[in-house]
Amino acid sequence: MSEPSGRRALRRSVSALDVGLLVAALAVIVGTAAKHDFSLPDWNTFSIVALASVPVLIRYGMVIESAAGALRASTAPAVLFAYDLDHPLVFLPVWAVVVLLSHLVLFDTGRSIGRGSIEVLGGATMVAVSRSIDTVLWPVDRAVTAAVVYTLTLVTLELLRVGVRHIDRVVGGVRRADAGLAFGGLVLACCVVAMLREAYTHDPHLITGLLGAACLATFVVGQILLARLQASVRGVDALAAAGQAMPWPADQIENTLAGFARSAIRAQDARTQPSSGSGPGQLSIALHEHGYLVVERVRGDLPFTRADARLLSALAGLSDTSRAHALKEEQLRHQATTDDLTGLPTYPHFRQRVERLGNARGGQRRIVVVFLDLDGLEPLDTELGHLDTDLVLSALGTRLRTGLPENVEMCRFGGDEFILLTVLDSDAAVEELDARVRSLVEEPQAIGDQVMQVSASLGVAASRDPHELIDAVIRRAESAMRAARDARPRVQAEAQSEVIARLLSDDGFAVVLQPLVAAKSGELEAVEALVRVEDQVFGRLSPVLVVGSAQRSSLLDEVTEVVARRAIDAVRQVEALVGRRITLLVNIEFAQLRSDSGLLATLRELVRIHGIELVLEVSERAFEDWTDDHRATAEELRDAGIGLAIDDYGAGYATYSLLTQWPWDLVKIDRDIVATDTPAGRRLLVHVTDLLVDLGFPVVAEGVEDAEQRAFASGSGVWLLQGWAVARPLTSEALLERLRAGTSF
Ligand code: C2E
Ligand code: MG
Ligand code: MG
pTM surpassing 0.70? Predict the structure, then answer.
């Protein structure tokens, strides 16, 4: 059976030395009490008031705080001092019991056993020593002796307790002014209580007793005010230090804030966190867009005041300013090292980065430089305007940044020139890089209402010689580029509507089918139709470009109809081959979901004629408000046997309300969620699948790229799998071929 945790924690916090100190303190109590046959002191108003004030003095008498909180100059000994100087030690045992009990009740039990015992021993030593000196200047000289003895005993025993090696934990953090004040306070307290007692002994009336009580009360209040005063001095010091340290080091702002907060208000713990703290003895200050500063009181310490909160707010303000400063610096650094337009490094920054790569060549390894110059951008400038030219450059920057391996360093060299540099092992790798850069540059893009394609002159130079300067290799690449330049074609631009119209009339749309298989059995259940375009002028155009251009030219319904007709033909062949139903998924845009749509009427008709199972997918990204017209359209489709699916769920805002708008026939979880290998990402997939399954939707995992992702997605409860790990999009011929060959997916 396990020990109750409270007792275990107590055992851990009390050391053998604490127990030893406690035994010594108890021995003093019992010894002195026995000496007087356990008789009690002479009870009167004054002694009762004095004893009752001891716990209060202990609780609030903290004027000195060392780092370990060990040296606590309480004025409680003053009470003892006044009583036991001229009298037998009859008051000591009672006082000592009150001190020990006060510590146990008022503070953290474990540690206060040691500390309380030390105070008892300090008090006993103080009385023993100061009684033995002759006084000339009563009670001042005795009070000073008493305070010295008491303090020395406390420090010595505390050092013994924490170990001399940790002397800084006892005295470290004690400021000289604090120590002086505490010592002076103790002497003063001894004098005041001694004189009051003397007055009371000569004239033991109620009124003198009350006067004594009032004096003691004033003393306690004075102590509290003093502690508060010291707290503000400490706060001002910390604030001044924090101000002087501005701006705080950019990567240390959080820690710096916590550190200053701790020293400003003597908190046990100070930290920044996303939410505000709610525990007892906690204070939270909101940081501008960066969560909260949460501080925690030292247990048993005075509660936080409004002044503490104001102090922390001021520190929080400094942290905000430091953060703004760091951000500005980061922006300036970014501006100096990054080209605005393309997001690529500037040439000087690039030069710095590639320096170390220069030494990485030799053997098979060579430095490869590609010098790239866009063709005919100046005439384009006059034709299109600077803005569109900028768009071309910025799109190219993005493509180069995201489309090449990470170890390719690159920069914008100026105007329309770019330099790429990397280390490669073989001629084949050099050729591959050359081809990849060319295809990234030449990929057609939509700029304004145009489809545009730029071409570039490329010069490639490689060097295996570690002695050849990088600049020399760059120069060779540049001359190679110049030699190649004139032979290249120029910028192509054509209105998007013309491109789409030409594709429609030239029958330029092809369709590929990507299989969707059951996660459990691996059996083919559905195919998604994806548009493919090979244009006579621009070559291959990406589906996203084509769909966007067709939409902007109001020709998307025509395009979708062509895609759907082709796909239906293909699916019918597949169904004939496998001898069962295969669902066809066709992509549409949200804007195409209209009750007056001619396209949807045609699709309903096609489904009726061919009796196929058709589901239309709409990407979550494209969804806007789901209106009554959308609902009516969806109902009409359902009546005709056409289903609706959410595509790319989780690529947008993973909108929950979308899930309640319509009983979707399929929800496809976006590949960003599926293609993850972090533990958090995997849990997300499991939770999203659970949610969707729980809401009753059949779930598809999209973009399953490898065997590991496939195994994980299969185990997470999805119904269908789609992605490269199952099959790439295939022409209908290739798909039929695979099915005939009986190759499994
Ligand atoms: P989508 O509907 O989400 O289609 C899936 C896309 O992911 C396809 O790209 C597909 O080739 C790709 N893909 C499939 N498996 C994997 C994989 O394992 N890993 C990765 N990285 N990608 C995979 P594609 O063909 O380029 O199509 C892009 C988007 O263009 C489609 O995304 C769809 O939104 C749109 N689209 C394609 N054809 C049409 C169409 O006929 N009409 C409409 N409105 N949109 C279409
Ligand atoms: Mg899709
Ligand atoms: Mg998708």
Answer: no
